Amino acid sequence: MFSTTWALENFVGRLAALSPLSQDDIRALLALPAEPVRLRGNFDIVSPGEGFDYACLVVSGLVARYIQLSDGRRQFTAFHMPGDIADIHRVATPLAGSALQTLSTTTIIRLPLKDLKAVGLASPAITQAFWAYAAVDAALLAQWVVNLGGRDATSRMAHFLCEIGVRSEQAGLGSRTEFVLDASQSQIGDALGLTPVHVNRTLKALKQSNAIAVDGRIVRVGSWPSLAMIGDFDVDYLQRDQRQEAA
Amino acid sequence: MFSTTWALENFVGRLAALSPLSQDDIRALLALPAEPVRLRGNFDIVSPGEGFDYACLVVSGLVARYIQLSDGRRQFTAFHMPGDIADIHRVATPLAGSALQTLSTTTIIRLPLKDLKAVGLASPAITQAFWAYAAVDAALLAQWVVNLGGRDATSRMAHFLCEIGVRSEQAGLGSRTEFVLDASQSQIGDALGLTPVHVNRTLKALKQSNAIAVDGRIVRVGSWPSLAMIGDFDVDYLQRDQRQEAA
DNA sequence: CGGAGTATTGAGGCGCTTCAAAGGCGGTGG
DNA sequence: CCACCGCCTTTGAAGCGCCTCAATACTCCG
């Protein structure tokens, strides 16, 4: 796990699960130039308003997309774990939009946009798959909106943990009931629109109700049904595998 | 304005502004079958969890994407005005995801997904353009997250009005300082994560500071700079026209 | 002219923020 | 190796923003 080839294969595998790809397509994707870069935590991969000629594939660690408010606070809009490409949308619109930052020590691969465009140009199926991948990302964004707009702190936190758990499981990094969340309470606050203080109190409440236990950066879910209930969590929305739908 | 052909041409025009399309591409898009349907307000075009074999092009009125919470409340995640396709993402992933509802009396065109897929298959440039359009939609979603997670009610409302204003202007429906917002305060509340009561008070505050004036469903912006300041609004993020970037 | 949805306003309560302070943990240098 | 420092976590107390409950008026439509 957490090697350059693992990350690329993991990504391509999930891409193929989303949208049909030929063996040639897969070979072309796996042949993309891949030089890993190691970065410390709280490092801006892409600063706000900045352009960037690469897409960012996460190899290990945790990366967040964010948008900065005028008073300096930042709102995270997405978390990306190993095997994810954080900004595939850049292939469609080079437009700046959001910034990109590491949460903990992280290694990434910078994939040149021109190479991604080239493989997409060579094979329409790859473009379709990229778009499908981006569409899932957008579905997560929509859920994030619901989480911030419609739920209180406890429910919001529970939903967030459910999402990270299921995505960890899908990425083969752990299970939904035991996974790593390598983010500080302050960073979680920037994701959930809460102050660090209240994140702490909210987690405390979830621990006391035995919904979760936290051991360092490892989250153990005591009772998945109860956590999902508290968070009003519906697994379906991040069901990335279209083949399951057909079955 | 607000005819079937106007809506389709408006959409295709903005699509072409986003991503280069040939004359053949444009002809193929304009030749899509287009039978308009008139719908009353608060009508579910796509109910939560339901599949749907069409994409929805708005001809007149206002359409919102939403996700329902378990207690029956709904959170709007996007507004769509005449000339917009509300759920182009369905072409990439037929997955349910979000529901679709009219806010006021609305006429739409239902575009069969299979036809949209067919034109995309015939021309990669069209698929690229669809994806770029969806990517802009996702950028709006990210801003919506920031709005809910990072701003208080007044700022949130101001930002929302700025977004609707600029998009109305871009769609040729009005100007950013005078536009129609055909939604009730309760519906605006479902978009901003506020109660109708607080929407009312927030609007009252904006009126009293002369930032806006409301006349029926017409919003007049008294001072655009001050509204943009209150809402911490940055025009760039919904700059849909890539050709401007090059210039 | 009656009824339903919408807008408006008031009063009180709760959830989250702000401010403040103390303890834990890992990293770094003497 | 330990002492120190910065960051993170944890907890308390007070305040404010938004919600809830409630009542009245307005507007559109049948």
- Looking at how many chains there are and whether they match, the oligomeric state comes to homodimer
From the alpha-carbon coordinates, what is the Rg of chain A to the nearest angstrom? 18 Å
Main sheet makeup of chain A:
4 strands, antiparallel
Sheet-strand content of chain A, in percent, reads 15-25%
What's this entry about, in short?
Chain A has 247 residues and is an alpha+beta fold. Chain A has helices at residues 4-18, 23-30, 113-122, 124-150, 153-170, 185-192, 196-208, 224-231, 242-246, and strands spanning 36-39, 44-46, 54-60, 63-68, 74-80, 99-102, 106-112, 178-180, 212-215, 218-221. In chain A, the strands form 3 sheets. In chain A, strands 2-6-4-5 form a 4-stranded antiparallel beta sheet.
Would you give an account of this structure?
- The structure is a homodimer of 247-residue chains.
- Chain A is α+β, with helices and mostly antiparallel strands and 247 residues long.
- Chain A has helices at 4-18, 23-30, 113-122, 124-150, 153-170, 185-192, 196-208, 224-231, 242-246, and strands spanning 36-39, 44-46, 54-60, 63-68, 74-80, 99-102, 106-112, 178-180, 212-215, 218-221.
- In chain A, strand 4 (63-68) and strand 5 form a beta hairpin.
- In chain A, helix 3 (113-122) packs across helix 4, helix 5 (153-170) crosses helix 8 and helix 6 crosses helix 7.
- The longest helix of chain A is centred in the middle third of the chain and has 27 residues, at 124-150.
- The relative contact order of chain A is 0.15.
- Chains A and B meet through strand 5 and helix 4 of A and strand 5 and helix 4 of B.
- The structure holds a DNA duplex (30 and 30 nucleotides).
